[in-house]
Every structure is written in structure tokens, then in C-alpha cells.
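Appendix B. Chain record.
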Amino acid sequence: MTPRLRAVLLALVLAGLGRRAQAQDSEFGIRGLGSPGHWESAGSRMTAGAFAAFDELSALADASLAFQTKLTATANSATSRRTVDVGAGSATITATRFPLFQVSGPVYRRVVVGGGYSAYLDQTYRVLNRDTLVIRGDSQVVTDELRGDGGVSDLRLAVATAVGSHLYVGAGIHGLTGSTRVRASRLFADTSQYRSYLQQGEIRYEGLGGSVSAIVDFADRVMLAVYGRSDGQLQENLDPNISAKRDLPYTLGAAARLRLAAAVSLAGSVTYRNWSVSADSNAYNTLDWSVGAEVGGSKLPLRFGVRGGQLPFGPGGQAPKEIGGAAGTGFGFAKGHGRFDIGVEYLQRTGGAFRETVWTTFAGLTVRP
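C-alpha cells predicted for this chain:
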């Protein structure tokens, strides 16, 4: 990104957030690289992500692929209703996303290969600021607008296997790709004396990361998982001759799952990411946690959970906070060859003078030919 374009975009962000924000994405992702996505299947998201490390349909821990016994494909959709409050104004926005698609299956004895798509960073937003400026002694009404549309996608290829009867290990490579179309404009109410200003461009992203994980199963009653990931640098390309690199965080996490009975399980996880390496003054390291439960058999289970932690980008000199909960269920069809999961999630985010509440309904379709 050119220094001029970056300066214009930053100026409009700082001006716009102080007045009125209309954001398809979270307002806490506008100042930084974006809003991190969830690497969780619909079933795991119902538990607030607590079971994701043990879920072969999620993209969190590669070792969980070793639990896959047949070719399987899954896809998620999520529709959010977001209410944002920036102190001087508020807005309600709805948006639909398709945050995850995964395919996996055994290829040789105990070796399972899987991969697919998940959302890594979302950068879709609109910031609008209306103000009055004094120019050469005269008051002029102006409208500043900053738009972004796009984000960074995570393309994963992973392999997992069982080592003995109690240990599962996995590893994956991640290609980061995508683009964001950015547009910054200033419109004057008095068009007879002042011309409107517009600057726009498309930022394309490239990156490469790797992940490793392991799961230990103690007699099918207690499972422990550890996982780590490093995403290196994200290259931003405005055109063939202009580019910049931003450091991305490493991820470290651990999770535990306890089976209390044949149809009752509890799980919890904690994940740390050092987002401050991005060299952004509004970037913060995050520590996230989740606790959840699954009750009932596979026909119509009840899943629920709570989650909390921080967001990596935001104003106020400290990481914005996030807390929320989720619940849902699912059912099989076509004699076990298909499954449909549906749930709802509530999140509350706070940081500085900003407030945000999000209701999300999500669904997952899983097919086993």
C-alpha cells in the first residue's frame, strides 16, 4: 500500500470512528488486520468452541483428523445481526458468511488426509463520518467514507495418524490468500467550490503457515490435546511494484475432554495468540477460553457452551474484551450419510467507548457418501 493511500485510509478511520460507524464486520477489526475467524465446525461452535480440538470437522487441531473413518465433507453458514455503539451513534447490520468448508478421509491404513477453506481475517466494513470543517474562514459540510470489502482466507492441507492406541498426531500447511477492495472518499456539500476526493485500490494477500498438534486418549474417558501454529508473514500487494509485509501471530493452545457417561461429555480449551507482532499500535496479544458440554446421543444432542477472552485490535490502550455463549442441536438423515446442525450464538464486545452485541445463527451440513 502506498504511504499516501495508507495515510488517507488511516485519517478517515480515525475521523469516522469518532462519529458514526456502519460495519458489516466487527468495528474492532477496522483499525488492524481485521477480525479473526473461527476454525470451528457448526457442531463445535454450538459448544462455544470447547470441543473444536477433538472435532475432525473443525480446522483447529490437525490431529483430530485421525478420528475420521470415511470420506466426509462439511460446510458452514453463519448469519449475524450486529448492533454497534460508538458513543456518538449506533447502527444495526446483518450479514451472511460461509466461514468453513472441509473435506477429509482415510487414504492408507491409519493415515487420514483433509483440508479445505476457513476464514482467517475478515476486512469487510464501512465507516461514515459527517462533519463541518472551517476552510479559508468558511464552514464547509463534508462527508468522509471508508469502505473495505474482502479479507484473508486460510487454505489448509493436513495429515493425521494414530500412533499406537492412545496417541494421535497431525500436521498441516496453510496457504493464506485473498484480497480487500478499499475505497476512501471525501464529498463536499458545496460542489460549486470544492471537488470530491476519491482514492481506491485492491490489496492482495499472500502468506504461508504451518501447524502441529497431538491428542492423547486415556481409555476413551479423558482426552488431552495440544496444538500450535505459526503463520509467518502476510504480504500485502497493491500492485506488482508496491508491497508490504506484516508479521502474523503464532498460536498455542490446549484442550481437555471428559466423558462422564455414554451420552454426556464436557470440554474446555484455552488459546493464546501474540497479535502484537503485527507492529500495529492498536494490536494486542489475546488469551481466549471456552467451556462446553454435549448431552444426548447422536440423533438429537443438546450442545451448549460459553467463551471469553480478548480481541486483537481496538482503541483504548488495551485489548477489547469478548464474552458470550452458544447452543444448538443436530440430526442425521439419509441413513447416516448426511447430518444437519443448527445453533445460535450471542457475543458481547467492549473496548474503550465502543460496544458491540452480536447474535448469530449458524448451520452446518455434513455429507458422508
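Further analysis of this model is presented in Appendix C.
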